[in-house]
Amino acid sequence: LGLALYTGSLCAASGTAFLYHDYCVIGAGPSGLQAAYFLQQAGRDYIVFERSHAPGSFFALYPRHRKLISINKQYTGKSNSEFNLRHDWNSLLSHDPRLLFRRYSRDFFPDADTMVRYLEDFASLLELKVQYNTAIIHVTLERDEQAWNGHYFLLTDQDRQIYKCSSLLVATGTWVPNVVNFPGSEYVEGYETVSINPEDFAGQTVLILGRGNSAFETAENILGVTNFIHMVSRSRVRLSWATHYVGDLRAINNGLLDTYQLKSLDGLLEGDLEDLAIVKDKKGKLHITLRFYLENRNTSAGINSITLPQDELDNFATRAPYDRVIRCLGWKFDFSIYNRSLRMMPGKGNKKKYPQIKPSYESRGTRGLFVLGTASHSVDFRKSAGGFIHGFRYTTRAVHRLLENRHHGVPWPSTVYPITQLTNSIIKRVNEASGLYQMFSVLADIILLRENATAFEYLEEYPVGVLAELEVQTGRKAPNGLFVIIMEYGRNFSGADKDVFYYNRAVGEAQHAWQSNFLHPVIYYYKHLPTEHEMRLRLPDWPLPHPDAVHHIVEDFLTDWTAPNAHILPLRRFLENCLSTDLRNFFAESCFLFAFTRQKLPPFCQQGYVRTQGLVGSEGLRRHAVQAGLLEDYALTDFSGDRPPDSRHGSQDQLLRDHVIPVRPLQHLVNTKDE
């Protein structure tokens, strides 16, 4: 008995060592705070761990020269808040209008310090549960069949405190600098520590390793004081206006391209950095050579004993010595804190800096572990905006909705409309939805058709990569077919080698909409929900498998898809062809006529006129219909002759003027087959 009591006391003591929460979020950057907001709104048990004393610690240091490249457009000419988020790349999603970034800065490209202040206010004003000065140093699993995912996550902080969670959301971003090791790499300065004072570079010759925004940002800062700047990378420069990827080189940083192409001493070179070597001479100058020249040589013997490329090729491009070499190669995900049991593996190829995750943002190795924010960018790397605030604020919301359905039985939010509102619903969303616009080809609106296509259920911003899992992931059923609304660029329009300013680059006619190049809505129709097999076999660069029908809404210079003939009419006819129905709206007179002349009424008449719903007649409405040519002007009928006023034409005129039309006899006629 004593042994049993002692063992029980030990178990109780060990149990109190764990602090439990349903959800643990690592990192209080933008994506971590966004996840915390949705969890708090849903009333869930969660905690956010932040290693620094304040949120957004990444932005306290980066970008080094303090100017963000995310736009902050103050004016759009519209008051629609959802539309305006299309051009606000810094705000997080919340119900509080005070937390719009334009209230913090009027700069088109804001200062990074403003972002730090914004994130601090976001966390404090919304009273998010963030535990600061807590660095998670180890994450492992504890198997338990009773847990949500068959295991718990155990997190250990720098003080050896252990936290236990049912679901883990990783929002740490990518913050470990990419470093290339080669002979002489010890002479290289890192972007994270190099001076940002231009005067420190006055009269110097500088070599920059890298070709992203951080490299060009660094060059832009010292462009006017250096002798010349050379930039080396293994790949050619990728301009964001050509690739339509906001992570590629932005115009705000590309001054070096001017000085290179206009022959003002600066230049760009391509080469594998791992093949390089740097040798320092007695004067402190840095000479660039190739690794194979140093093989089997004594580098300590001095530079005079080392063969340089210019010894064999006297016009070698980098034969001039440099005063400084700066590494600007970006960042990668920190895998070091995750135990092998979690199987957090890096991606392949150019995605190796990110962890491997599914299109649902769940780890491929561990159920219940989701990656948010910049670290989740492998899903849409160099395609969409998932690695940036204006993209991952929507993917974070999508992850929250998936978790709500999985763990709490809360289906994906949806709205049911009568089929007569199908065209209007699509037009409204493609003209104002921000999530579709920013996360093009990744997030899509899903329209689930009800039986006999009399109504539909509308789901917003669902990840298309898991379309085959829609019923499981959302708690919604799709037995009668569906439409998928997505935004896309033209198939062959984007690329580092593309000329996006060529003549006749835009399409303006509806019949050529499928050739649209700029961002435009595309509607896919499936009679049945695509399977996993069909998703795997989809064509390269296609976000979805081959549909039963597809419709492109022609690109628009104003991104305003409301033109009656160019945009709405072709869309309505496409929908009618898919559903074999008539989606037009009709006046009461037409519905009255159809009731006697057709076996099947159009949905508008079935759901409106027959049920005494719809527009109430008035003299003003009648005159408008006459002027538009939709109704005959019976008021002009001459009743002064032999025809009595109670004749058939007079009755029609009176019928049009009546505000209420009795429908009970009409319903009887429609429902009686013999008549």
TrEMBL record:
Gene3D superfamilies: FAD/NAD(P)-binding domain (3.50.50.60)
Pfam family, one: Pyr_redox_3
Domain of life, per lineage: Eukaryota
Gene Ontology MF: a single term: flavin adenine dinucleotide binding
Keywords carried by this UniProt record: Endoplasmic reticulum, FAD, Flavoprotein, Glycoprotein, Oxidoreductase, Signal
Cofactors: FAD
Coiled-coil annotated residue ranges, if any: none
PANTHER family found in the cross-reference section: FAD-DEPENDENT OXIDOREDUCTASE DOMAIN-CONTAINING PROTEIN 2, FLAVIN-BINDING MONOOXYGENASE-LIKE PROTEIN (AFU_ORTHOLOGUE AFUA_4G09220)
Function recorded in the entry: Probable flavoprotein which may function in endoplasmic reticulum associated degradation (ERAD). May bind non-native proteins in the endoplasmic reticulum and target them to the ubiquitination machinery for subsequent degradation.
Family listed: Belongs to the FOXRED2 family.
Summary of subunit composition and partner proteins: Interacts with SEL1L. May interact with OS9 and DNAJC10. Interacts with TXNDC16.
Protein name: FAD-dependent oxidoreductase domain-containing protein 2
